[in-house]
């Protein structure tokens, strides 16, 4: 149990996760303690279920809705710019972790870059050796001898989703400017890329309703975005193909992450999220149009994982195409077949299959 006199200071990453972990284990439904993780996350309750205080060691008085809907005299509601296309339960359950074997040096470099990023992510979130999966199959194996805690998962979700929303915006923006500058058609790539970044932002906003980042986490996110945006901006100008491959590998990690969460939820290792009183945030219910009776954390993760599987298939496929001439197959109507479904094609479509 955490001593009640913890000063509001910054701890090391591992200490933060340990603190959050012990808070979750030792202070079941207890209020009156303010715990800040090193990663800067204050683990607040889901705004939709603050009354139940399922995931919080923060006093109720300190919990707040980070981005409440603005109440105006005339506007009733503001719908998302890109309504979600929706999935059937069968489609969501059919998603599996996958890995595209690197073909050539640039693929290998993109893959290694993602692996190095994940290595540092594990360190930053205090993931011990026993919490890691089989290193020979890091994006497909989901069994580890020790599960992650809800707190560790939320730190990863918030950080990864804040980063994942950047590439689509950079790619879409640069292709948009390229089309204006060269007075040429884009052939349908821009909207898919912008929609991807929008979708990632909805993932982030959903998780932000479950925990509140402190100043340390916010500072890290600002710094990370500054570096990541500029690096991607330059990289996309130099080689959009490599960037799409890199994003494909990043999304392999995302599908792996959410598959592992599902595995641990099914195994009963994340009791806060399987508690019948836990409800997902309203923003998620509205965006994915989650039906009544299917609004558990597991349902939410199934939707998000299917989104990540789409990004994975789309980006691996775009990485196989002629960046200047080929149309985007995922918004095209075909002469002799159905429009391809990226979520179920973990390694992406080869060019000959879709062009
Ligand atoms: Fe995401
Ligand atoms: Fe994604």
UniProtKB/TrEMBL annotation:
<dbReference type="InterPro" id="IPR038659">
    <property type="entry name" value="AOX_sf"/>
</dbReference>
<feature type="region of interest" description="Disordered">
    <location>
        <begin position="336"/>
        <end position="355"/>
    </location>
</feature>
<feature type="binding site">
    <location>
        <position position="161"/>
    </location>
    <ligand>
        <name>Fe cation 1</name>
    </ligand>
</feature>
<feature type="binding site">
    <location>
        <position position="203"/>
    </location>
    <ligand>
        <name>Fe cation 1</name>
    </ligand>
</feature>
<keyword id="KW-0999">Mitochondrion inner membrane</keyword>
<keyword id="KW-0408">Iron</keyword>
<keyword id="KW-0249">Electron transport</keyword>
<dbReference type="GO" id="GO:0009916">
    <property type="term" value="F:alternative oxidase activity"/>
</dbReference>
<comment type="function">
    <text>Catalyzes cyanide-resistant oxygen consumption. May increase respiration when the cytochrome respiratory pathway is restricted, or in response to low temperatures.</text>
</comment>
<feature type="binding site">
    <location>
        <position position="311"/>
    </location>
    <ligand>
        <name>Fe cation 2</name>
    </ligand>
</feature>
<keyword id="KW-0812">Transmembrane</keyword>
<keyword id="KW-0472">Membrane</keyword>
<dbReference type="Pfam" id="PF01786">
    <property type="entry name" value="AOX"/>
</dbReference>
<comment type="similarity">
    <text>Belongs to the alternative oxidase family.</text>
</comment>
<dbReference type="GO" id="GO:0010230">
    <property type="term" value="P:alternative respiration"/>
</dbReference>
<feature type="binding site">
    <location>
        <position position="308"/>
    </location>
    <ligand>
        <name>Fe cation 1</name>
    </ligand>
</feature>
<feature type="binding site">
    <location>
        <position position="200"/>
    </location>
    <ligand>
        <name>Fe cation 1</name>
    </ligand>
</feature>
<feature type="binding site">
    <location>
        <position position="200"/>
    </location>
    <ligand>
        <name>Fe cation 2</name>
    </ligand>
</feature>
<keyword id="KW-0809">Transit peptide</keyword>
<feature type="binding site">
    <location>
        <position position="251"/>
    </location>
    <ligand>
        <name>Fe cation 2</name>
    </ligand>
</feature>
<keyword id="KW-1133">Transmembrane helix</keyword>
<keyword id="KW-0679">Respiratory chain</keyword>
<dbReference type="GO" id="GO:0098803">
    <property type="term" value="C:respiratory chain complex"/>
</dbReference>
<keyword id="KW-0813">Transport</keyword>
<feature type="binding site">
    <location>
        <position position="308"/>
    </location>
    <ligand>
        <name>Fe cation 2</name>
    </ligand>
</feature>
<dbReference type="GO" id="GO:0046872">
    <property type="term" value="F:metal ion binding"/>
</dbReference>
<keyword id="KW-0479">Metal-binding</keyword>
<feature type="transmembrane region" description="Helical">
    <location>
        <begin position="215"/>
        <end position="238"/>
    </location>
</feature>
<dbReference type="InterPro" id="IPR002680">
    <property type="entry name" value="AOX"/>
</dbReference>
<keyword id="KW-0560">Oxidoreductase</keyword>
<keyword id="KW-0496">Mitochondrion</keyword>
<protein>
    <recommendedName>
        <fullName>Alternative oxidase</fullName>
        <ecNumber>1.-.-.-</ecNumber>
    </recommendedName>
</protein>
<dbReference type="GO" id="GO:0005743">
    <property type="term" value="C:mitochondrial inner membrane"/>
</dbReference>
